[in-house]
Each structure stands twice: as C-alpha cells, then as structure tokens.
Amino acid sequence: MESLQRPVILILGAGAVGLALAGRLAAAASVYAACRPVHAAAIRDRGLVMEGIWGDATIREVIPVTGPDEVPPAVDFVIVTAKGTGTRAICADYAGVIRGRPTASLQNGIGNEDIIAEYTNTVIGGTVTTNFSVAGPGHVRVLSESAPMRFGAWSGDGDALRELIGIVRSAGIPVEPEPDIRAGKWAKALLNIAVNPICALLRAPVGVAAEKEIRGIVDGLIRETFAVAGAEGVHLPWATADDYLAYLFGVQVPDFATVYPSMYHDLRQARRTEIDLLNGYVADLGERHGIATPYNRCIAALVRYAQTHPDGR
Description:
The protein is α/β, with parallel strands linked by helices and 313 residues long. The protein is built from twelve helices and twelve strands. It has an eight-stranded mixed beta sheet with strand order 5-2-1-6-7-8-11-12, with helices on both faces. It has a four-stranded mixed beta sheet with strand order 4-3-10-9.
C-alpha cells in the first residue's frame, strides 16, 4: 500500500552535516545524498561510516549521487545542507527535482531560504547546533549536541513541515518545531555576524572579540544588525542590542573563546566565505530600508577583498 512506503529524501550538498543526517535518516526513509565524488565512491564501496553520539556504525542504506540524473523521480523531501555559498548553484543543478517539492534548509547564514523559494513554493527553514565533522571519505563524526534540531515553515504547506518533523523524529534525531523560523535563523546568525569575520581577518580565535580594541567594532555590528532585523519585522529573543551584547560577552564569547570559526579556515584555504549571507546580507537589507550599516559594510568589504587576495596583495 502507498501509505506503507518509506518516504524518499534527497540531501543536497552532503558534507559533514548532510552525510551524518543521511546516515541517521536511513533508519526511517530511503535516503539519497548528493555529495562529492570522493565521498560517493567510498560509500558505494563500503558504506557510510559514522562515529560519535549518534552511534558508531557503517550504514549501507544511504545511496550516494553526484548529479541530478542519478536521482529517482519519486522524491518526497529535499534537504539542502550545502554551504551557503553554493545554495544557488546546487538549486539550479537540481531544479528539476526541487520544483514542486517541499525543500528544507539546514544551513548557516540568512537568505538561503529566499534563494530556495525561487525554485519551489514550500520552503522549510531549519537550524542545527550539533557539532559534525568529516573524518575522511564517506566517514563522519557527530561530536556534540547542544540543542534539538529545529524546523519551521518559511513558505507554503504546513502539512509538509509536520511530516518532515515526524520523519526526523522517527529516525531518533532530537527535533522540535520552530514557530518563528525567521527569528530563529537571525538569532543563530548573530554570533557569526559578531565574531566570524573579525576572527578570520585577525587570524585569531573567538576570544579576540572581548579585547578592548575590538569590542567597539562588535558593538557596532550588533547594533546595526538589530536595527535591520527590526525593520524586517524580525522579533529576536533579546529585546535590545544591549541584552544580546551582554549575552554575547558574558556567555558565548567565553564558551567559544578558543574556537577558530569556519570563516577563518575558509580564508586560510582560499575558499569563498559566507560573508554575503551574514554581514553583507545585513548591509544590503540596511540599504533597502535606509538604515546606515557602516560597520557591517566595512567588514564585509574587507572579507571579500581577503578572499580574493589570499596573499594580501
């Protein structure tokens, strides 16, 4: 019977997050993971190797794909886990699969859902605070989990959201509905907006944000971001920028003081950063609303220059 068939899920841009998610979801769905050829070859050869708090196992049910022609026609859900810099390209490549299907984003930054919405009407936003890493080809580790995964309706069909949450939960992944996913995405992005570009440019860990010479810059970035979020009608969990800054310097910066954020590694390895989905996004929205964002605009410009001139010239 149709109702007894396992749902079919396609994960796009499956790196550390997407492969780990694929391995866990394979218990509740038929999962196709669009990944790099090196991962696809390893998974085809001996299965997906998982380690960590989601269990130690070799998952042979995940089906790796490297192009849209390898995807079956009967896909029920698409989940995008690609880095935000690749969202438009991967949506364009898989447009024929995404069109008309509920598609969720589990990505950093703000604005990925808006891109996905150009390809399908039902878009689901998501946040994840689990620590994933790639140990090798077709080999992932799930290191820690600080909060449940959260999904919320961005646009379109609310029934699709409830069904997706049910599938994820049945696979044993902690997940909760997010009533205001826009606020959730902005709230998660605040730390990245505040510290990622500064750490990348200064080649320093998160703790540098607390230095006297740097705090004023962070203060400016956050105040501008709160002003733009307010103009967008986003209701952040903190009533004022001062409230968030107290949390940032009292909790987040100390907790992550020794961590080098992903943007630091992107610049060191001459990769494109997600600056246009963070500070650049805030600056662009600020211009649209007539709000001055000199701190975010300056930081975004510096990072763009650094990523195109890795030798500093």
